[in-house]
Amino acid sequence: MIPWLLLLPLPVARAVEVVGVPPSLQASYAPSASGSWKCLDGSKEIPWKFVNDDSCDCPDGSDEPGTGACPNTYFYCRNEGHIGANIPSSRVRDGLCEPECCDGSDERPGVCENICVEVGKEYRKKRAEELKIQKTGAKIRSTYVAFAEKEKKRLEGVIQTSSQEITVREKEVARLQDIADRTESLSAAELEYKKESPLYQSLLEHRDALKSLQREHKKHLEREKTLSEILDALRTGYNPNYQDMAVLDAVRGWEYLAGLPHINDVGKDASAETEDDEETDSEPEEVIPEGEWTPVQLEKDLPKLLKTDYVSLLLEHDEHVSTPAEGSMLFELSNYLPDALIPQYEDFKDTLLGWMETIGVIRPSVGVSTGRCKATHAQQALNDAKNSLRKVEKEKQTAEEDLQKISDSITFGPQGEWKKLDGTCLEKDVGDYTYEVCLFGASKQKPKKGGTTFNLGKFSSWNPDAEPGTPEYYEKQMYTKGTKCWNGPERSLLLVMTCGTENVIHTVAELEKCQYQFTGTSPALCLPVSETNGGAKHEEL
After folding, report:
1. Closest Cα partner for 437 from 456, 410, 453?
2. What are the backbone dihedrals phi and psi of residue 448, each rounded to the nearest 5 degrees, phi first?
3. Would the pLDDT of 487 be above 80?
4. Which positions ≥6 away from 439 have C-beta within 8 Å?
5. Model's pTM, two decimal places?
6. 142 versus 210: which is more confidently predicted?
7. How confident is the model over 114-143, as pLDDT tens digits?
8. What is the largest CA-CA distance in the chain?
């Protein structure tokens, strides 16, 4: 019987779980056949009984996962019925029930009650509500992503169309540039020929003569001013008792010419001070013939006259003499013809005029005015073509910049989901103010009862403490360089957002002087459940 009993399978001893060790490391906490155990960093081998003996033996502290004997280590709470959690080992056996350890395993038996069932139930309820919001928000977010994709295709189409149009317009600009250069060259030659006319040469001679007269006139004015100063000094400083008749005649003559009062021999000093108030004989006012200029006009208007553009004047004269006189039947006939016959009439008129010019009946009408007109039209066409080219190039540049913002993860998110909300304004009434933030724009504090609206800052960046592309990066927006506070810093705003089914601001707070914080929600932050931990793994033990 005994040999037969030996053939029966023996029960396998279940491995004892080590307190404070997470399930992923339980396999590493088993004694060797000799009853020893090696520290997790492999630096030392100790007796198995030294594990969790409240004495730190391993350099890495791995022998005391269930006590607080080793610094900088962690204790794992299983929290059956809820979610496991790690707490610093320094908080183990400290007599305080840690909320992270709802099973009370961080303290001695009987100290903390195991409430993981209740906590887990409440957590699952809350998590279900969050998942419901997240799923709804993710559906809305998917429309934002679809909008971004549609916008990308539109911009790509604009870039492609603009590139083709730029090629065409560049060729057109080159063609018109060549025409303008040739037309300008021809008109310049015609202009040089016209400048040889006696009328133009006479105008230049008159201009040079006027400039010479103006120069000499200024010289005489300066000499007259100097002489008047000398005579004034003589008038007020001569000695009347000397009886120098030449000096006396000079003074009396100057007084008459300048319209000054006579200075008698006794009170000349007093009268010199009050001479402006005395009545004196004045020269009779000069009568200037009609059409001639007054001294004031010579002083003010002569410089303008000398700056006349004689070339433009010549062209205007040429255009004037080339214009048919009123009543010319040949040139006014088009006013009486039906619109359908005007093209044929214009062709006939051009042919007739060309024939009459050829045989010498009329003088050629192609002159400087015509050449300059053609040059002007050619230059205008060239300028219009260049403006059109610049406009298309600007449209392409703007489209490329917008496409870049949607495509990268820095501006509008990994999938461009924030593009839909670009410029969307959110408001929140708090007390006597309405607080507003326009996403990627500016934020404001607006009084409800009148007063000054303060700028709280313009969008400057996403969360500077997170990496672009991570969910945390898009949970915060920074608005800076707002209106400066009196005796304080510039106003600024931190917008903190979480997943929600609406784009809305929930709270407004002034954390420090002139530094505000808004909290709110947006569907743009609601990732699909499959991309979050809630749907990727089973949290509950």
Report:
1. 456
2. -80, -30
3. yes
4. 418, 421, 422, 423, 424, 425, 426, 459, 477
5. 0.55
6. 142
7. 999 999 999 999 999 999 999 999 999 999
8. 177
Question: How far is residue 332's CA from residue 339's CA, in Å, rounded to a whole number?
Answer: 14
Which residue do the tokens 């050449």 mark? 371
Going by pLDDT thresholds of 50, 70 and 90, the confidence category of residue 360 is: low
Average pLDDT, the chain: 82
Cα–Cα dist 219/226, whole Å: 11
Distance CA 387, CA 173 (A): 10
Q: Which of 179, 185, 206, 215 is nearest to 313 (CA)?
A: 206
**Three-state SS annotation for 294-348:** CHHHHHHHHHHHHCCCHHHHHHHHHHHHHCCCCCCHHHHHHHHCCHHHHHHHHHH
Residue of 437, 407, 444, 398 whose CA lies nearest to 421: 437
Sign of CA dihedral 67, 68, 73, 76: positive
- For 248, the token pair is 């006396």
Q: DSSP states of 492-539 as a string?
A: EEEEEEEE-SS-EEEEEEEEETTEEEEEEEEGGG---GGGSHHHHS--
**Local structure of 484: helix, strand or coil:** strand
Residue 177: its pLDDT value, please? 87
Which parts of 200-326 are beta strand (E)? none
Read off the DSSP letter of residue 118: H
Per the CB < 8 A criterion, the answer to whether 477 and 439 are in contact is: yes
* Amino acid, single-letter form, for residue 25: L
Cα 216 from chain centre: 58
pLDDT at 217: 80
5, two tokens: 């009993």
The structure tokens 């010319």 sit at 328
For residue 169, the tally of other CB atoms under 10 A from its CB is 19
Question: Is the separation of the CB atoms in 171 and 345 below 8 Å?
Answer: no
Q: Residue holding tokens 């120069």?
A: 215
- Residues 53 and 66: their CA atoms lie apart, in Å, by 9
SS3 category, 443: strand
**Dihedral angle over CA of 105, 110, 113, 116, nearest 10:** 30
Is residue 451 exposed (0-12), middle (13-18) or buried (19+ Cβ within 10 Å)?
Answer: exposed
The CA angle 526-529-530, to the nearest 5 degrees, is 130
> CA 143 to CA 459: how far, in whole Å?
24
| pLDDT 10s digits, 46-70 | 999 999 999 999 999 999 999 989 9
State whether residue 490 is helix, strand or coil: strand
